[in-house]
Structure formats: structure tokens, C-alpha cells
Specification:
The chain is of the alpha/beta class and about 270 residues long. It contains eleven helices and five strands; from the N terminus they run αααβαβααβαββαααα. A five-stranded parallel β-sheet has the order 2-3-4-1-5, with helices on both faces. The longest helix is centred in the first third of the chain and has 13 residues. The termini are far apart. About 5% of the residues have low confidence.
């Protein structure tokens, strides 16, 4: 029973539930809700290649690493390059704002733009909708909802055409899970600075520096200082961005000195 009053409502409800084969044929491969990049993506070519290769073989890939290491940006960039591989699109599910595992199903449905009806179990509706779909779910920031990973297992069992790319500080601990650990960006040795600006960490520092000091053109000595900063923060992208932001009042050596004392300098009042 579709719980509708007329044919038009039946067609609309059937479309929502993915029951109309003709509807699937007209789905565009560009269907996605991936957020646009706010800043140019830097580096990570090896990781992007690895993610693409792994998602050919596995249906659940988790990017694991500490906060600030760039898991979300990496997942989004990888997903952007895979759009043509999923007939029904790629959908970003932002889990960070929710605090209860009870809200996971609703949040996934909202990411898919699938309206949940009030008269039926939400999880049953979602699984039925996904059953005949061929899509990628990018589930971001799963670490605080690990008690709710059962829905991921249910999706993978029910919908053979659906794959999941998750980001988390901890593994999901599901049998089907493949793990890719995300580390810091590459940076040069302070003593060997040849082609230093070809390293991802230096490129990111420069990109961030130019926001607060347009036209920033470091000397070789300053590049050595930048390499030292990148080393102190282990190549962590967020830390590099926050360190570079201090160039509006400090020079490179002073930033390095402050970081050498403690990491309190790595704070921000940026609203987003």
C-alpha cells in the first residue's frame, strides 16, 4: 500500500521509493550534493589514487586519522573524481552535527533528498529506496556515532549497488570494512631544500600565507623555516593553515619559535 489518494500521488510516491524503472534511466550521473570547494585542493595524489582503486574492490572504505588531518577534504575530492562511476550519484552525509544514533537514518535520507513518510519505519523506507540504487554515500565524521554503524551494515547487505566512503577518527569495526590511514602531508627536510615548494605541505602553507600576506615570496632561509613549521606539526593540514595565518603579525621564524614552545598558537577565531 502506497498510502496515496490518486494516480499522480502514486507516481510521485513510486518515484521516491525507486520503484519506477523508467525513472532510474533518466537519473543523471551528475546527481550529487557534494559541497563546493572553498579553497583549492592541494596534493594527496597518492591517496586519491588509492581511494579510487580500493573502491573498485571494496564496498566500505574508511579513512581513519586524527582531527585536522584532512579526511573530509580528501574524501570529497576523491568522490568528485568518481562521479561518473555511480549511475545514481554521490551523496555527502554530514554526521558531525548530530548527537544521537537515532538521527543517522534521517540524516542519510536528508542527504539523499529522500522524504521519510511518518506512517512507516524510517529505516525500512531508506533500505527499500536504496535497494535498486547504484550510488556512493560519503559518511563524514562517524567517530562519535560508532554505536550506530549497524545501519551501514544493513545498507551494504540490502543494497548491492551502494558503496560507502566513511571518515572517522576510529575504525567502524565492521567485517566488510577496508581501512586507509590518513597521515600528514609530505614536507622537505630542513637541510635539503631543493625543490622544496613541490612538497604538498609547503604548497599548502604558501596558499594559506597568501590569504594574509598577498604576494608572499619566501627566501630560501624562510622556506627552511616553513619546512621546520611543517615538521613541528607533522604535516597536519589544519595545523599548517593555522600556523600560516599568523604571518599577518609574525614572521616565519617567530611562528616556528612559538610552536616550539607549545601549540597554543594553533587556535583560530574564524567563524566557519
Amino acid at each position: 500500500n502506497l498510502y496515496v489518494k490518486n494516480r499522480r500521488q502514486a507516481v510521485e510516491r513510486g518515484r521516491e521509493l525507486g520503484l519506477l524503472d523508467s525513472d532510474k534511466k533518466r537519473v543523471s550521473t551528475s546527481q550529487t550534493n557534494l559541497p563546493p570547494e572553498r579553497t583549492p585542493f592541494v596534493g594527496r595524489s597518492d591517496e586519491l589514487t588509492e581511494i579510487g582503486q580500493q573502491l573498485v574492490e571494496t564496498r566500505l572504505l574508511s579513512l581513519i586519522g586524527p582531527g585536522g588531518i584532512g579526511k573530509t577534504r580528501l574524501a570529497l575530492k576523491a568522490a568528485e573524481g568518481l562521479i561518473d562511476d555511480f549511475a545514481d550519484g554521490i551523496f555527502f552525509v554530514r554526521l558531525a552535527p548530530i548527537r544521537s544514533v537515532k538521527d543517522i537514518v534521517q540524516t542519510i535520507a536528508e542527504g539523499l533528498k529522500f522524504p521519510i513518510a511518518t506512517h512507516e519505519d524510517p529505516q525500512h523506507q531508506l533500505l527499500r529506496y536504496l535497494r535498486k540504487r547504484e550510488l556512493l554515500l560519503v559518511m563524514d565524521n562517524f567517530e562519535h556515532l560508532l554505536d550506530g554503524v549497524g545501519i551501514v551494515s544493513e545498507i551494504l547487505q540490502t543494497a548491492p549497488g551502494v558503496k560507502v566512503l566513511a571518515t572517522s577518527r576510529e575504525r567502524l569495526n565492521l567485517q566488510s570494512e577496508t581501512i586507509l590511514h590518513v597521515g600528514g602531508m609530505d614536507f622537505p627536510d630542513q637541510m635539503i631544500l631543493e625543490d622544496a615548494q613541490t612538497y604538498d605541505a609547503i604548497t599548502l602553507f604558501m596558499q594559506s600565507a597568501n590569504k594574509v600576506r598577498p604576494g608572499f615570496d619566501p627566501s630560501l632561509e624562510e622556506v627552511g623555516g616553513i619546512a621546520g613549521v611543517c615538521q613541528l606539526v607533522g604535516g597536519m593540514p589544519l595545523a599548517i593553515e593555522l600556523a600560516a595565518a599568523w604571518l599577518h603579525i609574525l614572521n616565519v621564524d617567530e611562528i616556528g619559535d612559538e610552536l616550539g614552545k607549545d601549540l597554543d598558537i594553533l587556535a583560530t577565531e574564524v567563524r566557519d
